[in-house]
Amino acid sequence: MVSKMFVKEIWRYPVKSMAGEALRSATLTRLGIDGDRVILTVDPRGRLITARTHAGLLGHKGTTDAHGIPLVDGRPWTDASVLADVRKIAGTQVELIHDESADRFDILPLLVATDGAIAAFGRDGRRLRPNLVIGGVEGLEERTWPGRKLRIGDVVIGIDSLRGRCVMTTYDPDTLRQDTEVLRDIVARFGGELALNCAVEEGGAIEVGQAVELV
Fold first, then answer.
1. Strand 75-76 versus strand 155-164 pairing type
2. How many CB atoms lie within 10 A of CB 191?
3. Given this structure, which CATH class describes domain 2-32+106-214?
4. Would you call 182 helix, strand, or coil by DSSP?
Protein backbone atom coordinates (compact mmCIF):
# COMPACT_ATOMS: atom_id res chain seq x y z
CA MET A 1 0.00 0.00 0.00
CA VAL A 2 1.26 3.48 -0.87
CA SER A 3 0.21 6.44 1.27
CA LYS A 4 1.43 9.94 2.03
CA MET A 5 4.28 9.81 -0.46
CA PHE A 6 6.68 12.72 -0.58
CA VAL A 7 9.94 13.88 -2.13
CA LYS A 8 12.53 12.58 0.32
CA GLU A 9 15.74 13.37 -1.58
CA ILE A 10 16.78 15.24 -4.73
CA TRP A 11 20.17 14.50 -6.29
CA ARG A 12 22.02 16.14 -9.14
CA TYR A 13 25.26 14.89 -10.74
CA PRO A 14 26.70 17.85 -12.65
CA VAL A 15 29.66 15.73 -13.81
CA LYS A 16 28.70 12.29 -15.09
CA SER A 17 30.21 9.42 -13.07
CA MET A 18 31.32 11.66 -10.20
CA ALA A 19 29.65 11.96 -6.81
CA GLY A 20 26.67 14.30 -6.83
CA GLU A 21 25.03 16.97 -4.71
CA ALA A 22 21.91 16.74 -2.55
CA LEU A 23 19.47 19.57 -3.29
CA ARG A 24 16.57 21.07 -1.37
CA SER A 25 14.81 22.04 -4.60
CA ALA A 26 15.27 21.64 -8.34
CA THR A 27 13.81 22.53 -11.70
CA LEU A 28 12.78 19.62 -13.93
CA THR A 29 12.64 19.87 -17.71
CA ARG A 30 12.18 17.31 -20.47
CA LEU A 31 15.88 16.57 -19.96
CA GLY A 32 15.58 15.82 -16.27
CA ILE A 33 16.97 17.90 -13.43
CA ASP A 34 18.39 21.15 -14.71
CA GLY A 35 22.19 20.89 -14.77
CA ASP A 36 22.35 17.11 -14.35
CA ARG A 37 25.22 15.25 -16.05
CA VAL A 38 26.16 18.17 -18.28
CA ILE A 39 29.93 17.57 -18.05
CA LEU A 40 31.26 14.38 -19.63
CA THR A 41 34.63 12.67 -19.91
CA VAL A 42 35.39 11.53 -23.45
CA ASP A 43 38.28 9.84 -25.22
CA PRO A 44 39.96 11.19 -28.38
CA ARG A 45 37.24 9.56 -30.52
CA GLY A 46 34.51 11.23 -28.51
CA ARG A 47 33.51 8.02 -26.75
CA LEU A 48 32.14 8.40 -23.24
CA ILE A 49 34.32 7.35 -20.31
CA THR A 50 32.48 6.45 -17.10
CA ALA A 51 33.07 4.97 -13.67
CA ARG A 52 32.06 1.57 -15.03
CA THR A 53 35.63 1.27 -16.30
CA HIS A 54 37.34 4.03 -14.30
CA ALA A 55 35.91 3.89 -10.79
CA GLY A 56 38.27 6.58 -9.53
CA LEU A 57 35.94 9.17 -11.05
CA LEU A 58 33.51 8.43 -8.22
CA GLY A 59 36.08 9.84 -5.79
CA HIS A 60 35.52 13.37 -7.09
CA LYS A 61 32.44 15.43 -6.29
CA GLY A 62 30.42 17.45 -8.76
CA THR A 63 28.46 20.46 -7.52
CA THR A 64 27.09 23.68 -9.02
CA ASP A 65 27.84 27.24 -8.00
CA ALA A 66 25.33 30.08 -7.55
CA HIS A 67 25.62 30.93 -11.25
CA GLY A 68 24.94 27.37 -12.42
CA ILE A 69 28.58 26.61 -13.28
CA PRO A 70 29.54 22.96 -12.63
CA LEU A 71 32.33 22.50 -10.12
CA VAL A 72 34.60 19.57 -9.33
CA ASP A 73 35.74 19.44 -5.71
CA GLY A 74 34.93 23.14 -5.49
CA ARG A 75 36.85 24.13 -8.64
CA PRO A 76 35.31 25.27 -11.95
CA TRP A 77 35.14 22.25 -14.25
CA THR A 78 37.28 24.19 -16.77
CA ASP A 79 40.16 24.55 -14.31
CA ALA A 80 43.31 22.87 -15.62
CA SER A 81 43.77 21.04 -12.33
CA VAL A 82 40.41 19.30 -12.76
CA LEU A 83 41.39 17.91 -16.17
CA ALA A 84 44.75 16.85 -14.73
CA ASP A 85 42.98 14.90 -11.99
CA VAL A 86 40.64 13.24 -14.47
CA ARG A 87 43.52 12.29 -16.74
CA LYS A 88 45.29 10.57 -13.85
CA ILE A 89 42.26 8.29 -13.64
CA ALA A 90 41.12 7.89 -17.25
CA GLY A 91 44.22 8.49 -19.38
CA THR A 92 46.24 11.39 -20.68
CA GLN A 93 44.19 11.85 -23.85
CA VAL A 94 40.72 12.30 -22.35
CA GLU A 95 38.89 15.61 -22.36
CA LEU A 96 36.02 17.13 -20.41
CA ILE A 97 33.18 18.49 -22.51
CA HIS A 98 29.90 20.29 -21.86
CA ASP A 99 26.87 18.55 -23.37
CA GLU A 100 23.21 19.37 -22.72
CA SER A 101 21.79 17.01 -25.35
CA ALA A 102 19.66 13.96 -24.59
CA ASP A 103 22.62 11.79 -25.66
CA ARG A 104 24.31 12.34 -22.30
CA PHE A 105 21.94 9.94 -20.53
CA ASP A 106 22.45 6.18 -20.47
CA ILE A 107 18.73 5.45 -20.78
CA LEU A 108 16.23 8.15 -19.74
CA PRO A 109 16.88 11.54 -18.11
CA LEU A 110 15.56 10.72 -14.65
CA LEU A 111 16.23 7.87 -12.22
CA VAL A 112 13.72 7.51 -9.39
CA ALA A 113 14.13 5.29 -6.33
CA THR A 114 11.91 4.76 -3.31
CA ASP A 115 12.70 4.50 0.38
CA GLY A 116 11.03 1.09 0.53
CA ALA A 117 13.24 -0.40 -2.16
CA ILE A 118 16.37 1.18 -0.67
CA ALA A 119 15.48 -0.36 2.70
CA ALA A 120 15.05 -3.74 1.00
CA PHE A 121 18.39 -3.23 -0.74
CA GLY A 122 19.90 -2.79 2.72
CA ARG A 123 22.78 -0.58 1.66
CA ASP A 124 23.55 3.10 1.11
CA GLY A 125 21.03 4.40 -1.44
CA ARG A 126 23.75 6.53 -3.03
CA ARG A 127 25.06 3.36 -4.66
CA LEU A 128 21.97 3.50 -6.91
CA ARG A 129 22.68 7.12 -7.98
CA PRO A 130 19.03 8.25 -8.01
CA ASN A 131 17.87 11.71 -9.02
CA LEU A 132 14.80 11.45 -6.80
CA VAL A 133 14.04 9.33 -3.77
CA ILE A 134 10.33 9.06 -3.03
CA GLY A 135 9.50 8.55 0.64
CA GLY A 136 6.50 6.85 2.20
CA VAL A 137 6.59 3.79 -0.08
CA GLU A 138 6.04 0.30 1.31
CA GLY A 139 8.63 -2.33 0.49
CA LEU A 140 9.10 -3.09 -3.20
CA GLU A 141 5.93 -1.34 -4.34
CA GLU A 142 7.95 0.58 -6.94
CA ARG A 143 8.28 -2.62 -8.98
CA THR A 144 4.59 -2.36 -9.89
CA TRP A 145 4.84 1.24 -11.08
CA PRO A 146 6.15 1.01 -14.69
CA GLY A 147 3.47 2.36 -17.02
CA ARG A 148 2.14 4.78 -14.41
CA LYS A 149 3.02 8.39 -13.56
CA LEU A 150 4.14 10.43 -10.58
CA ARG A 151 2.66 13.87 -10.02
CA ILE A 152 4.58 16.39 -7.90
CA GLY A 153 2.74 19.69 -7.98
CA ASP A 154 2.72 20.71 -11.65
CA VAL A 155 5.40 18.16 -12.53
CA VAL A 156 4.42 14.89 -14.20
CA ILE A 157 6.94 12.05 -14.42
CA GLY A 158 6.33 9.04 -16.65
CA ILE A 159 7.60 5.73 -15.26
CA ASP A 160 9.06 3.60 -18.04
CA SER A 161 10.82 0.55 -16.58
CA LEU A 162 13.00 -0.89 -13.85
CA ARG A 163 16.70 0.00 -14.09
CA GLY A 164 19.18 -2.77 -14.73
CA ARG A 165 22.12 -2.25 -12.40
CA CYS A 166 25.84 -2.29 -13.19
CA VAL A 167 29.23 -2.52 -11.51
CA MET A 168 29.00 1.06 -10.21
CA THR A 169 26.77 -0.19 -7.38
CA THR A 170 29.69 -2.22 -6.02
CA TYR A 171 31.74 0.82 -4.99
CA ASP A 172 31.31 2.40 -1.57
CA PRO A 173 30.33 6.06 -2.15
CA ASP A 174 32.76 7.31 0.50
CA THR A 175 35.74 4.95 0.43
CA LEU A 176 35.47 3.59 -3.16
CA ARG A 177 36.16 0.15 -1.74
CA GLN A 178 34.67 -2.43 -4.09
CA ASP A 179 32.35 -5.19 -2.87
CA THR A 180 31.34 -7.35 -5.82
CA GLU A 181 28.81 -9.13 -3.63
CA VAL A 182 26.55 -6.06 -3.93
CA LEU A 183 25.82 -6.64 -7.61
CA ARG A 184 25.50 -10.39 -7.13
CA ASP A 185 22.93 -9.68 -4.42
CA ILE A 186 20.98 -7.30 -6.68
CA VAL A 187 20.87 -10.03 -9.32
CA ALA A 188 19.86 -12.73 -6.84
CA ARG A 189 17.17 -10.80 -4.97
CA PHE A 190 15.95 -8.23 -7.49
CA GLY A 191 16.62 -9.80 -10.86
CA GLY A 192 19.40 -7.28 -11.46
CA GLU A 193 16.97 -4.35 -11.41
CA LEU A 194 16.47 -1.60 -8.83
CA ALA A 195 14.95 1.89 -9.17
CA LEU A 196 13.02 3.27 -12.12
CA ASN A 197 13.85 4.72 -15.52
CA CYS A 198 11.67 7.80 -15.89
CA ALA A 199 10.96 10.70 -18.21
CA VAL A 200 9.67 14.17 -17.39
CA GLU A 201 6.38 14.73 -19.20
CA GLU A 202 5.53 18.07 -17.60
CA GLY A 203 8.34 20.15 -16.12
CA GLY A 204 8.45 22.56 -13.22
CA ALA A 205 9.87 23.11 -9.77
CA ILE A 206 9.97 20.52 -6.98
CA GLU A 207 11.27 20.57 -3.43
CA VAL A 208 12.09 18.16 -0.64
CA GLY A 209 9.02 17.35 1.44
CA GLN A 210 6.57 18.01 -1.39
CA ALA A 211 3.67 15.59 -1.76
CA VAL A 212 3.86 12.93 -4.49
CA GLU A 213 0.87 11.24 -6.09
CA LEU A 214 0.95 7.99 -8.08
CA VAL A 215 -1.52 8.22 -10.97
1. unpaired
2. 12
3. mainly beta
4. helix
Paired residues of 206 in beta bridges: 26
Contacts with 172 (C-beta within 8 Å, 6 or more apart), sequence order: 124, 127, 178, 179
Compute how many other C-beta atoms are within 10 angstroms of the C-beta atom of residue 189: 13
**34-82 pLDDT per residue, tens:** 999 999 999 999 999 999 999 999 999 999 999 999 999 999 999 999 9
Burial of 119 (C-beta count, 10 Å sphere; 0-12/13-18/19+): middle
The domain ranges of the chain are: 2-32+106-214, 34-104
pTM: 0.95
Report the length, in residues, of the chain: 215
Give all strands of the β-sheet with 213-214 in edge-to-edge order: 21-23, 2-12, 132-137, 110-114, 193-202, 155-164, 149-152, 213-214
Count of Cβ atoms closer than 10 Å to residue 81 Cβ: 11
